Amino acid sequence: MDTLSTSVSSLKAPGLPTTAPRETFHFRSPHTPFLLPHYHHLSTHRPNSTFNKPSLPFTSKSYKSPFLPSSQPSSLRSPSPVVHRKAASGYAAALMDRARCSNVLEAVEHDVRRFSRLFHSEHLRAILNDPFVDDKTKGEEVKQVVEKGRFQKHLAVLLKMMIEKNKMGMVNEVLQEFQRIYDELSGTRIVLVSSARKMEEDQLFGIAKRVQSLSGAMKIKVRHLIDESLSSSAL
């Protein structure tokens, strides 16, 4: 099984809001006694409930099936016309539409994940969360990250426009909404794995393969949440 992306994100993220549920599988790591080895505790639920602990770092990795054709931007299902009641959804949908029309959706999605990791870095979060730093200074800091990161131009234009319009507080929501739409259109299943310590990549890959065989999904995205309290509860 080849991987959809070799990038792995690891960060301490604040709550990740979503506007629509994605089908997810959530289970604990085999390191704790709460797991059954045959994974029949897998359950479908709303993913936003798993991010109520902003201090929990997680890693994310995507996998795709070797038995199904590769997913290309042109193969994504066309979304039905919708009215976006939230501004973040409108920004995300506009970026998605521009990326698809330019046939650069995969590149934009990759850079959205890359920028999200930088956006949640300890240095940048300290500045953005500092009440004594004015919005203009915060915007300049983010703009420098965008310029130095050499991101795909459609994403860079959107981010700079949001900074100029003082929409910094909405950036994270837009990034998450873009990922939600992308996962929905590409048929990606989200697997949430909780463990007391960081798991090896081959362990996560094995979990992804197991879920893929059970669900028949073309793509699996693993999000690894590290919760040190699980080790104490195992005693």
TrEMBL record:
Superkingdom per UniProt: Eukaryota
Residue ranges, compositional bias (Polar residues): 1-10
Signal peptide range in chain numbering: none
Renumbered residue ranges of the record's region Disordered: 1-24
Keywords attached to this entry: ATP synthesis, Hydrogen ion transport, Ion transport, Membrane, Transport
The keyword Ion transport is assigned to this record: yes
Predominant subcellular localization, coarse grouping: membrane
InterPro entries hit by this protein: ATP_synth_OSCP/delta_N_sf, ATPase_OSCP/dsu
A molecular function (GO) term: proton-transporting ATP synthase activity, rotational mechanism
Pfam families documented for this protein: OSCP (PF00213)
Record localization: Membrane
One GO CC annotation: membrane
One GO term of the biological process aspect: photosynthetic electron transport in photosystem II
Protein's UniProt keywords contain Nucleotidyltransferase: no
Family, as annotated: Belongs to the ATPase delta chain family.
Stated name of the protein: ATP synthase delta chain, chloroplastic
UniProt source species: Nelumbo nucifera (Sacred lotus)
Source organism phylogeny: Eukaryota, Viridiplantae, Streptophyta, Embryophyta, Tracheophyta
